Amino acid sequence: MKRVRLILITTVLYFFVYSIQLVLIHKFINPIVTPLMVIRLGEGIIKGNKSIAIHKEWKDIDEISPNMILSVMAAEDQNFLTHHGFQWEAIRKAMDYNSKHKGKRMKGGSTISQQTAKNVFLIPSRTWIRKGFETYFTFLIEMIWSKERIMEVYLNIIEVGNGYYGVEAASNKYFNTTSKKLTSKQAASITAILPSPLKWSPVKPSTYLQKRIGTIQNSMGQVEKPSWLPRLH
Predicted confidence band at 174 (pLDDT cuts at 50, 70, 90)? Predict the structure, then answer.
């Protein structure tokens, strides 16, 4: 039993050291790929899709339109600048909704910080174990990274279409422009599809999506603007 206990303690210590080092590294070095990108690529290969690829191009935060930053804050996390990784009231409401609407599309209460931690460090899963690791990594990036870095990573790794990741890839694919030149409507349109990027299109929005885009645009002027928000030239 002593040997088993020693192995368990050593394993836990190694995990803590490794995970903290990993988060520290990604504070300065941009993620090359994420687990989701690899999984999607594997799914495409298994299905025999020879054209499947990973389309992405990293852009620093000052090369991304403020419209894009404000739109994701408006739609995904209006308290992004003030919370410490979690919005407990939003999580509680999401849990209540999901328990009352079983069988329907689940509503999430994740912050941008949680989504970033999940996408960079973990595989997609709805298990409580994965949720526990997500909480841990969210805590770490909130402690070690700045809000600016969290937003920068988030906007560069989010899934925006089949094989497309990040706002630069979305800007090129859907609007034939760069992420720095996105208008408020274009940014809101990209943001609107994030809950279901493999089913929805920002250039062919349904009636529901059109309403969602309008709501996001209207909310963009109400969120607190970060001090590090880039300026459009």
Answer: very high
Domain ranges of the chain: 2-220
pTM of the model: 0.90
Of residues 207, 215, 171, 163, the one with CA closest to residue 190: 171
Gap between the Cα atoms of 197 and 162, Å rounded: 8
Please report how the helices 128-144 and 112-121 are oriented relative to each other, as an axis angle in degrees rounded to 10: 110
User: What is d(CA 137, CA 120) in angstroms, rounded to the nearest whole number?
Assistant: 9
CA distance linking residue 154 with residue 94, whole number of Å: 22
- Looking at domain 2-220, its CATH class is mainly alpha
Taking only the tens place, the pLDDT of each residue in 15-61 is 999 999 999 999 999 999 999 999 999 999 888 887 789 999 999 99
Structural tokens at position 147: 């809000």
